[in-house]
Amino acid sequence: MKKLIFLSVLTMMLFSCKSTSVTNTKLDRTSQVAIKGNWVLSSVSYPGSEYIKVNSFQIADSKCFEGSSWKFISNNNKGNMALEKANCPAFASAFTWFVNKEGEFVLKLLDAGEKAKKVKEGYVLKLANQSETSFQLIDKINVGGKLTDVVYQFEKLN
Protein backbone atom coordinates (compact mmCIF):
# COMPACT_ATOMS: atom_id res chain seq x y z
CA MET A 1 0.00 0.00 0.00
CA LYS A 2 2.83 2.38 0.85
CA LYS A 3 4.42 1.70 -2.53
CA LEU A 4 1.17 2.50 -4.30
CA ILE A 5 0.77 5.80 -2.44
CA PHE A 6 4.42 6.67 -3.10
CA LEU A 7 4.07 5.92 -6.82
CA SER A 8 0.87 7.97 -6.99
CA VAL A 9 2.50 10.97 -5.33
CA LEU A 10 5.58 10.63 -7.55
CA THR A 11 3.40 10.46 -10.68
CA MET A 12 1.42 13.54 -9.62
CA MET A 13 4.65 15.47 -9.04
CA LEU A 14 6.00 14.53 -12.47
CA PHE A 15 2.86 15.58 -14.29
CA SER A 16 2.36 18.75 -12.29
CA CYS A 17 5.77 20.11 -13.32
CA LYS A 18 4.88 22.13 -16.36
CA SER A 19 7.44 23.22 -18.93
CA THR A 20 7.99 26.96 -19.29
CA SER A 21 9.50 26.69 -22.76
CA VAL A 22 9.07 29.80 -24.92
CA THR A 23 7.61 27.60 -27.63
CA ASN A 24 4.77 26.51 -25.32
CA THR A 25 3.42 29.99 -24.66
CA LYS A 26 0.56 31.85 -26.29
CA LEU A 27 1.27 34.11 -29.25
CA ASP A 28 1.06 37.89 -29.28
CA ARG A 29 -0.85 38.30 -32.55
CA THR A 30 -0.95 42.11 -32.30
CA SER A 31 2.85 42.34 -32.20
CA GLN A 32 3.19 39.81 -34.98
CA VAL A 33 0.81 41.65 -37.33
CA ALA A 34 2.69 44.91 -36.65
CA ILE A 35 5.94 43.25 -37.82
CA LYS A 36 4.40 42.02 -41.08
CA GLY A 37 6.15 43.38 -44.17
CA ASN A 38 9.57 44.30 -45.52
CA TRP A 39 12.22 45.66 -43.17
CA VAL A 40 15.88 46.61 -43.19
CA LEU A 41 18.12 45.93 -40.22
CA SER A 42 19.50 49.46 -39.98
CA SER A 43 21.98 49.06 -37.10
CA VAL A 44 23.49 46.67 -34.59
CA SER A 45 24.75 48.21 -31.37
CA TYR A 46 26.23 46.99 -28.12
CA PRO A 47 28.65 48.33 -25.50
CA GLY A 48 32.26 47.80 -26.53
CA SER A 49 31.43 47.29 -30.21
CA GLU A 50 34.64 49.08 -31.17
CA TYR A 51 36.66 46.44 -29.28
CA ILE A 52 34.77 43.17 -29.54
CA LYS A 53 33.13 41.34 -32.41
CA VAL A 54 29.82 39.51 -32.12
CA ASN A 55 29.02 36.59 -34.42
CA SER A 56 25.27 37.08 -34.92
CA PHE A 57 23.12 33.98 -35.35
CA GLN A 58 26.31 31.96 -35.93
CA ILE A 59 26.42 33.40 -39.46
CA ALA A 60 28.66 36.46 -39.62
CA ASP A 61 29.96 39.47 -37.73
CA SER A 62 27.07 41.53 -36.38
CA LYS A 63 28.08 44.56 -38.47
CA CYS A 64 27.50 42.43 -41.62
CA PHE A 65 23.81 42.39 -40.71
CA GLU A 66 23.53 46.17 -41.05
CA GLY A 67 21.61 46.88 -44.25
CA SER A 68 20.27 43.33 -44.49
CA SER A 69 16.73 42.89 -45.80
CA TRP A 70 14.08 40.96 -43.88
CA LYS A 71 10.56 39.96 -44.90
CA PHE A 72 8.11 38.89 -42.19
CA ILE A 73 4.83 37.15 -43.05
CA SER A 74 2.55 37.16 -40.00
CA ASN A 75 -0.26 34.85 -41.10
CA ASN A 76 2.02 31.79 -41.42
CA ASN A 77 5.00 32.96 -39.33
CA LYS A 78 7.47 32.58 -42.16
CA GLY A 79 9.94 34.96 -43.71
CA ASN A 80 13.27 35.37 -45.38
CA MET A 81 16.39 37.45 -44.94
CA ALA A 82 19.49 38.29 -46.95
CA LEU A 83 22.89 39.75 -46.09
CA GLU A 84 24.19 41.95 -48.89
CA LYS A 85 26.93 44.07 -47.32
CA ALA A 86 30.30 44.43 -49.10
CA ASN A 87 33.24 42.57 -47.52
CA CYS A 88 30.82 40.23 -45.73
CA PRO A 89 29.72 36.71 -46.60
CA ALA A 90 26.68 36.55 -48.87
CA PHE A 91 23.90 34.77 -47.01
CA ALA A 92 20.19 34.26 -47.53
CA SER A 93 17.79 32.09 -45.58
CA ALA A 94 14.15 31.36 -45.03
CA PHE A 95 13.02 31.36 -41.41
CA THR A 96 10.06 30.84 -39.14
CA TRP A 97 9.27 33.22 -36.31
CA PHE A 98 6.72 34.21 -33.71
CA VAL A 99 6.26 36.59 -30.79
CA ASN A 100 4.96 35.14 -27.54
CA LYS A 101 2.92 36.91 -24.84
CA GLU A 102 6.11 37.52 -22.81
CA GLY A 103 7.46 39.74 -25.61
CA GLU A 104 9.99 37.16 -26.75
CA PHE A 105 10.75 36.90 -30.46
CA VAL A 106 11.53 33.29 -31.43
CA LEU A 107 13.47 32.77 -34.68
CA LYS A 108 14.46 29.55 -36.49
CA LEU A 109 16.68 29.83 -39.55
CA LEU A 110 15.95 27.15 -42.16
CA ASP A 111 18.20 25.53 -44.73
CA ALA A 112 16.84 25.23 -48.28
CA GLY A 113 13.85 22.90 -48.35
CA GLU A 114 14.03 22.22 -44.61
CA LYS A 115 10.84 22.03 -42.56
CA ALA A 116 10.68 24.12 -39.37
CA LYS A 117 9.58 21.15 -37.27
CA LYS A 118 12.87 19.40 -38.15
CA VAL A 119 14.93 22.33 -36.82
CA LYS A 120 15.54 21.85 -33.10
CA GLU A 121 17.53 25.02 -32.41
CA GLY A 122 16.71 28.67 -32.76
CA TYR A 123 17.11 32.06 -31.16
CA VAL A 124 15.07 33.84 -28.52
CA LEU A 125 15.37 37.62 -28.50
CA LYS A 126 13.44 40.33 -26.68
CA LEU A 127 11.09 42.46 -28.78
CA ALA A 128 11.33 46.13 -27.75
CA ASN A 129 10.34 49.65 -28.79
CA GLN A 130 7.89 48.46 -31.41
CA SER A 131 6.12 51.09 -33.54
CA GLU A 132 4.55 51.16 -37.00
CA THR A 133 7.90 51.98 -38.61
CA SER A 134 10.52 50.38 -36.36
CA PHE A 135 11.26 47.77 -33.74
CA GLN A 136 14.23 46.32 -31.90
CA LEU A 137 15.31 42.78 -31.20
CA ILE A 138 17.60 42.46 -28.19
CA ASP A 139 19.93 39.52 -27.71
CA LYS A 140 21.91 38.82 -24.54
CA ILE A 141 25.54 37.78 -24.90
CA ASN A 142 28.17 36.95 -22.33
CA VAL A 143 31.16 39.31 -22.44
CA GLY A 144 33.74 38.61 -19.76
CA GLY A 145 31.17 36.99 -17.47
CA LYS A 146 28.73 39.90 -17.81
CA LEU A 147 25.49 39.79 -19.83
CA THR A 148 25.45 42.49 -22.49
CA ASP A 149 22.59 43.57 -24.78
CA VAL A 150 23.06 43.41 -28.55
CA VAL A 151 20.37 45.64 -30.10
CA TYR A 152 19.20 44.95 -33.65
CA GLN A 153 17.32 48.01 -34.94
CA PHE A 154 14.79 47.39 -37.75
CA GLU A 155 13.22 50.08 -39.97
CA LYS A 156 10.18 49.45 -42.16
CA LEU A 157 10.53 49.79 -45.92
CA ASN A 158 7.74 51.45 -47.92
Outline the structure in words.
The protein has 158 residues and is mainly β. It has one domain (21-156): Lipocalin, CATH 2.40.128. Helix content is 14%, strand content 43%. It is built from 2 helices and 10 strands, in the order ααββββββββββ. The strands form 2 sheets. The chain has an 8-stranded antiparallel beta barrel with strand order 1-4-5-6-7-8-9-10. Strand 4 and strand 5 form a beta hairpin. Residues 2-20 have low confidence and may be disordered.
Short description:
With 158 residues, the chain is mainly beta. 14% of the residues lie in helices and 43% in strands. The protein has helices at residues 2-16, 29-35; strands at 37-45, 55-56, 60-61, 68-73, 78-83, 91-99, 104-110, 123-128, 134-143, 146-156.
Number of E-type strands: 10
Query: What count of structural domains?
Result: 1
Topology pattern, helix = H, strand = E: HHEEEEEEEEEE
Major beta sheet, strand line-up = 1-4-5-6-7-8-9-10
CATH fold-level topology: Lipocalin
Quaternary state reads single chain
Which architecture would the CATH scheme give at its second level? Beta Barrel
* Poorly predicted regions: 2-20
